Each structure stands twice: as C-alpha cells, then as structure tokens.
Description:
The protein is α/β, with parallel strands linked by helices and 455 residues long. The protein has twelve helices and 23 strands. The termini are far apart.
Amino acid sequence: xxxxxxxxxxxxxxxxxxxxxxxxxxxxxxxxxxxxxxxxxxxxxxxxxxxxxxxxxxxxxxxxxxxxxxxxxxxxxxxxxxxxxxxxxxxxxxxxxxxxxxxxxxxxxxxxxxxxxxxxxxxxxxxxxxxxxxxxxxxxxxxxxxxxxxxxxxxxxxxxxxxxxxxxxxxxxxxxxxxxxxxxxxxxxxxxxxxxxxxxxxxxxxxxxxxxxxxxxxxxxxxxxxxxxxxxxxxxxxxxxxxxxxxxxxxxxxxxxxxxxxxxxxxxxxxxxxxxxxxxxxxxxxxxxxxxxxxxxxxxxxxxxxxxxxxxxxxxxxxxxxxxxxxxxxxxxxxxxxxxxxxxxxxxxxxxxxxxxxxxxxxxxxxxxxxxxxxxxxxxxxxxxxxxxxxxxxxxxxxxxxxxxxxxxxxxxxxxxxxxxxxxxxxxxxxxxxxxxxxxxxxxxxxxxxxxxxx
Length: 455
C-alpha cells in the first residue's frame, strides 16, 4: 500500500514510521524543516532557552554562596547559538531516523487535489497514492488590528529573529504560550506586561493554578491585566502606546500577539474535506476524515494542540490507515506549561467535575512543606488531587511547582487505571523527593496528611 504523509512534524513523522513498520510504502512531504513547529519554533527552542535562563537565575540568587561573585550580563547571541545547536542536533537525528526507517522524504509544498492525488507546487509534479495522513499543523493566529509586521508587532515565530533583547514587551494573550514567553523575557531582562481578555491568567487551567501563577508573577514584578481588551494602538518612533479598555495605557518597545493558532489548511481546500467552524479538519474517533482513506493528525484537527498528543495521534492513525481500528482517547492527556513555576494537569478540573454533578473530595499539599523543595530552593506551588467521593477513584490532578511536568505522569497513570485513593496511598515515595508532595496530597483527601499545617 502506498501512503503519503503531508507534514513532517510530531504527528506526521510518527505516523510515517508507524505505517512503514506496518508494511506500507511511505512518502513524507514537508515544505519546511522536519520536526514542525515543536522542534523548530516551539517546544524545543523555548525549553532550551528556559533551561539556560533558569540556570543563570539560580546563580544570581545564590551569590551569597560564591566568593568574589560579581554581576554579569546575559550573552543573548550565545543563548541563541545554544538553542540553534540543540535544534540542529534533533533535526539531524530525526532525518537519520526517517532514512533508517526507509521513508522517502520530499521537501516540497503539497496541495491535495483529490483523495488520492497530491500536487507538488515547487516541482510541479503529481503524486498518486492509496491513502494519506494530513499533518500540516498550525501557525500563530493574527488579530485584524494587530497584524504581524515582524518588527514591532510580533508572532511567536518572529521572536526567533530578534537580534537584541527588547527593553519592554507587551504580550497579548495569557495562555500557555503567552505565559511561557513572559517568563523567558523577564529572565532576559525585559520589562514584561501581559493583557488577557478573560478574567485570569491561564484561563483554561484549574482556578487554583491560575491564582497561584498570578501571585508568582506579582512577586517577580511581571505586570498583567486581566478582563481587558485593546482599545487603541499608537505607533511612535521608538515606542508603542497601547490603551486598554480599562483606560490604562501601556508603553512597550514591541508587542507579542499570542491569541491562539490558525490551522494550515489552505492546501486542502479542493479535496472536499469537511472543516469545522474554526477551520479545523473534522475527524472521527479513529482520526479519519469524511473522505475514505484520508486521515488528519496533530494541530490541524483541532483536538489538542500539543506535540505529545500529535505523537499519539500519529501512532494511531499510522495503524488505522493499515486497517487497524484503534480509538484515540483524550481523557488522559497531560497538559504542561513551563513558566515561572511549571504547571501540569490531567483529568478533570475542579469546576468541571462540579458542573458534571460529581461529588468530589480533594487534597492539596504545598511544596514548601516538603524537604526536597527547600533543598533545591524551589518551595512555591502545590499538588492538588481530585477524587470521586462515591467510588474513591482519582479523576483529576493539578500541579504548579518544581518539576510539575515530570510529576504529573504518576497521576495520569492513576486516572487511566481508575485507581482508588486508598490504593495509591499504599505507594511509598522515596525521601527526600518532590514526589512526596503527591503522597501527602492523596493523604490530605482524607485529612490525614502528616506534614500539613492548617492555616
């Protein structure tokens, strides 16, 4: 069977490898660099910068431990070089992986003109195939009155073209991307402000997470304005003047517009694929579109715009295109955000569970009560666990604090296995570790946490 995969990001290349291992003849077409947004402009570049900048931040905060310590400045060009090196190493590894898998990779811009025909725009060739997996991804969404110009009004992609650190930056949108870049540019030394139309930072997160992040931003003097819109923008010579609906004026050297993503579907309009209201490709639980043999994975199907979801969708679509019948399950997707304290969630949020009529019981335990948190100097945040009172099963977990992105998976597994709080409390966590906070949060569900001091 001849299969084409359109797009070489996390969903696309995993789908290609999975289908190839199942016996297909696979061609992967990518118009830009392999790895998609995640590797080239998203997950990996941002986390590389955050890792470097947090190391510098820790050194600055540890001056009392160093003899003859002096002030130092950030070498921005060296930071970018390190980021580029990490990305290039991963690109080469991915290219080698696809080559060893026996997958033909074509660098071209593909347009789907029928369910079994693709037109390559750069080479003006047509490719015919039996089935196709679409993995064309997404791009930063624009605002009509704040169109990207690559100079003053920037997308998250444009940030990688900066030669100097802006003295001040206004970020419009306090979702995951906005809050991560707020942290990055604060560490770089920019004066950072954020505006958000919703009433809180990270509006899609559990409310306790949002409120804690707001407190931490205030502590670091990262300004934010929630429940407001942009009323007016004036471009002066060196500075932008932004007037909020509250009447407040903000002055910034540059603006980052971070209000979501737009789906890359322009090359699919002639193939009679069914799209949703937001422009996403509609797929069923097997990740197949309304056209037989046409599947869609990753951002472009609008389900969860996360690289790790794309990986799983690519795996499932790669199997299903070869006549398997596996369903994609989204209830166990962990969400991770890398800001001033890492944020991670899985399962239901407290408000969601209440709205569903579930009689919940919850435990919450702060990192500051854990010895390891003090040992590493990161005591902010907490672990929060939700359980169904009737069945005693864990239904949700939310963490803000050190290594939250690593800790969340223990609780994701628990939810997937429908584990009961009583069962999980039998697990002994090594001491001293951050994971002890999970054990204590579980104990707190029954008001039996040993190290919790009631306020």
